[in-house]
Amino acid sequence: MASHPQQDPQDTRTAHERPSHEHTHTGPRILNLGILAHVDAGKTSLTERLLHTAGVIDEVGSVDDGSTRTDTLALERQRGITIKSAVVSFAIDDVTVNLIDTPGHPDFIAEVERVLSVLDGAVLVVSAVEGVQAQTRVLMRTLRRLAIPTLVFVNKVDRGGANPERVLADLARKLTPAVTPLGTVDAPGTRTAHYVPYATDDPDFTARLAELLAEHDDALLSAYVEGTALRHDELHTALAAQTRRALVHPVLLGSAMTGTGIDALTDAIKELLPAAPCAADGPVAGTVFKVERGLAGEKVAYARMFSGTVRVRDRVRVGGAGGGSVSGSKNAKDKVTGIGVFEQGTAAPRDAVSAGQIALLWGLRGVRIGDVLGHERDVPERHRARHHFAPPTLETVVEPRHPSDRAALHSALTQLAEQDPLIGLRQDPLRQEISVSLYGEVQKEVIEATLAAEFGVGADFRETTTICVERVVGIGAAVEIIDTDPNPFLATVGLRVEPAPVGSGVEFRLGVELGSMPYAFFKAVEETVGETLRQGPHGWEVPDCLVTMTHSGYWPRQSHAHAVFDKSMSSTAGDFRQLTPLVLMDALRRAGTRVHEPMHRFRLTVPADVFGTLLPALGRLRAVPHTPTAHGSTYVVDGVVPAARVHGLEQALPGLTRGEGELETAFDHYAPVHGTPPGRPRTDHNPLDRKEYVQRVTRRTRVG
User: Fold this and answer.
1) In what order do the strands lie in the sheet with 492-499?
2) Domains (range + CATH), the chain
3) Cβ(102)–Cβ(13) under 8 Å?
4) What is the pLDDT of residues 480-527, one digit of tens each?
5) Whole-angstrom Cα distance, residue 218 to residue 6?
C-alpha cells in the first residue's frame, strides 16, 4: 500500500492557471521502460539485477525466496509470479529510468495492457532455455503494432539446456526478421556462461547489421550495394534511429542471476531507446494506468505525465478517455492533495510532477484506470488508452462461504474491479448472485486468495463458463407514444437499431431536435440505452450497434393551484429511463440478433507419428485445423477452436502426444453459434416480458 507524502501549503490555483514560467522544467532525461515477458522468463529477476547494477539495492532479491523489490504482494511472493504491475526507478548516467515490471502470466494480460499506453520503450525478455513462447508472440505482435521501441534480452544463458543460437533463430522466424544480436555467448548452459559483444570491426557483424539497416535507409542501402565501407559510428547512429522508430530490435544476451550481459543491456537502454520529452510547459495531460488503495483506504492513482505540471493543491480535470455523447458535459476537477515521484527505487514526496515523469497522486476521489488528466487531445496519439488485447471470455459466479459475508464479498469484489476494470462484475439481484469475468483459472485462484488474505472473506467459485456476445443482424425500430396504450409512462421514445462494424462500440445519435425537450430526458435515454445493451434478447451483451432516437415527447411540469408538484401530470427523467428498455428491446427483436461465441486461434507442435490420431480429437473439440507443416520429426498445425473447448484440449494433449505436444492459444474473434443459441439468465427487470417488467418497475417506484 502507498503511504501519503508530505503536503504542500495551500495553493488553490488550477494547473491551467499557472504562469508559463512556472511550467519550465529542465532536468535529466527520463525513460519510462516496460519489462515484458512470458511467465518464468526471468523479467522480475532482471529488474532486480538492473536495480543492483544501478546501486539502488545492495543485494539482488530472489523470486523463489519472495525477496524482490517489485513483487510486494504476499500472494506474489507465495506464488513466485507477478500479478500487479510495479514501478521502480534508477539512473543510468544522466537518464532516469522508470521501470515498470509487468505480469507474464496470460491471465493477467490486462495489467500489461494498461502499462503499454505509458511506455517510451520496452525490454522483451526471452528465456534461453524455453525460447519463444505463446505470450512472447502476443507481446511482440502488440509492441510492433503500437510501434513501441523494443530491445530483446535473451535471459538464463547460464541455465542447463540454454541454446542461444536456437533462440536467436526462433526470434527471427517466429517474431520478426527485424532482430539483430549485438553479441554472442561463450559456454552457454554453464555457470561460467558469459556475454561477448561483437567487436566493432567484426566484418561479419558489420555486414549483417548494414544489410538489416539498409532496408529502411536509402543512404546505407546505396553504400551497401556499392560496397562502400561503413564506419561503426555511422551504423550505431542508424541503429539507434531505427530502434527508436521501432523498425529494428537489437538483441542482447545474458543472465539476470549471474549479471553477465547486464552492462551491455544498460548501455543499450541508454543509447538506443528514446527518452521522454521533459518540457513542463503546456497544458496538463496525463494517463492513469493503475489505481490502488492507501493505508487509510483512499485512492492512489499512478499517472504518466505527457505535458504540463501538476502541483499539490492544483485542481485537475479527470475524465474517461475517448468516446463522445450528446451530453457534452465537462468532466469534474479534483484537488490533488499529495504527490509522490519515482526516484532511486521508490516514490519520494514532492510538491509537483512534470512531463515525462510517473507519479502517485492522492485526492482524485473518482479516478479510474484509463482516465485522462487534462484533455485527451493533449495526450500523444500513440499513448492514448486503447484495447490492445482481447477482453476476458470466461465468467464464473462467486458465492460467500458464509451467507453473512454477502455484503462484504460485494464490497471486496467492487474494490478489486476498481483496480482491474476487466474484472467485470454482474449482479443478479433476483438470485442474489455476483459473476466476475476472467481470463483463466489462475486468475480465479488469485481472486479467491486475495479475498481471503486482504478482505477476510471466504468465497467459492462455480464452474467457469464462456462469455458470448450478441450481434445485430438487421435494422429494427420501435416507438411508444405518451398517453397511448399500452405505454404506462409519461414519455415518448422511438428508437432505431442497426448493425455497426465489429469493434466500433455502441453509438447513440439523435434523430430529433435537441431542443424538443429538456436535455436531462435525452441524457436519461442515452444512458439507459447503454445499460440495456449489456443484456440482449438472449442475455448477452450487444457490443457494436448504432442506436438512433427517432421520436421524443413529454408532458411539461404541472402543479396544482397551491404550487405542489403533481407527478401524475408531469414527465420526469425516470419515465424515460423506465420506458427506454421496452422500446429498445422491441427494436432489437425486430432487427434480430445472433449469438456469437469466442474463438481462440491455436498452434500445435506434435510428433509426426501421432498427428493422425490427433485429428479426430480436434474434431470432437470442434477445432478447425488448417494445413499442417512438417518440421523434421514434428508437425505444426494452426487453427481455431471454441474458447469453451480450450481447457479440454489442454487436458487431452499430453495423453494424445506422449507428453511431447506443445500448445499455444489466444483469443482471435467471435463466430456465430450454430444450432440453438446459448442464453444467459437476466439480471435486470426483464423488458422482454412487458407485464412482468411494468409490475416490477412500478412497484419499485412506489416503494421508492
Assistant:
1) 476-480, 492-499, 545-553, 506-510
2) 15-23+280-383 (2.40.30.10), 29-199+246-272 (3.40.50.300), 394-467 (3.30.70.870), 470-591+683-703 (3.30.230.10), 595-672 (3.30.70.240)
3) no
4) 999 999 999 999 999 999 999 998 899 999 999 998 999 999 999 999
5) 54
Which triple of cell numbers denotes residue 194? Answer: 558469459
Can you read off the three cell numbers belonging to residue 54?
A: 544501478
> DSSP label at 595?
E
CA angle 310-315-320, nearest 5°?
Answer: 90
How far is the C-alpha of 50 from the C-alpha of 73, rounded, in Å?
21
Which amino acid appears at position 647 of this protein? H
Q: Quick check: helix, strand or coil at residue 414?
A: helix
Cβ atoms of 355 and 98 within 8 Å: the answer is: no
User: In this structure, are residues 704 and 549 in contact, taking their beta carbons and an 8 Å threshold?
Assistant: no
What are the strands, taking DSSP E only, across 28-139?
A: 29-37, 86-92, 95-101, 121-127
Q: What is the pLDDT of residue 658?
A: 86
Distance CA 462, CA 272 (A): 49
pTM above 0.90, yes or no: no
Peptide bond into 283 cis (omega under 30): no
| Cα 225–Cα 228–Cα 232 angle in degrees, nearest 5 | 115
pLDDT < 50 regions, the chain: 1, 3-26, 64-77, 79-83, 322-330, 702-704
Selection from 407, 404, 388, 580 nearest residue 497 by Cα:
580
Question: Could you tell me which residues come within 8 angstroms of residue 477 by beta carbon, excluding any fewer than 6 positions away?
Answer: 494, 495, 496, 497, 550, 587, 590
Helix/strand/coil (H/E/C) assignment for every residue in 191-253: CCCEEEECCCCCHHHHHHHHHHHHCCCHHHHHHHHHCCCCCHHHHHHHHHHHHHCCCCEEEEE
- Identify whether the C-beta of residue 33 lies closer than 8 Å to the C-beta of residue 121: yes
Which of 444, 335, 467, 441 shows the shortest CA–CA distance to 398? 444
DSSP string, 310-363: EETT-EEEEE--S---S--PPPPEEE--EEEEEETTEEEEESEEETT-EEEEE-
Rounded to whole angstroms, the Cα distance separating 616 from 116 reads 40
Cβ-contact 389, 113 below 8 angstroms: yes
3-state secondary structure of 634: strand
> Between 43-53 and 262-272, two packed helices, what is the crossing angle to 10 degrees?
80
Rg (CA), the chain: 28
- Smallest CA-to-CA distance from 414 within 297, 495, 312, 497 is with 297
Cα-Cα-Cα-Cα dihedral of 520, 525, 531, 534, to 10°? Answer: -160
Burial class (CB in 10 A: 0-12, 13-18, 19+), 523: middle
- Give residue 641's pLDDT: 93
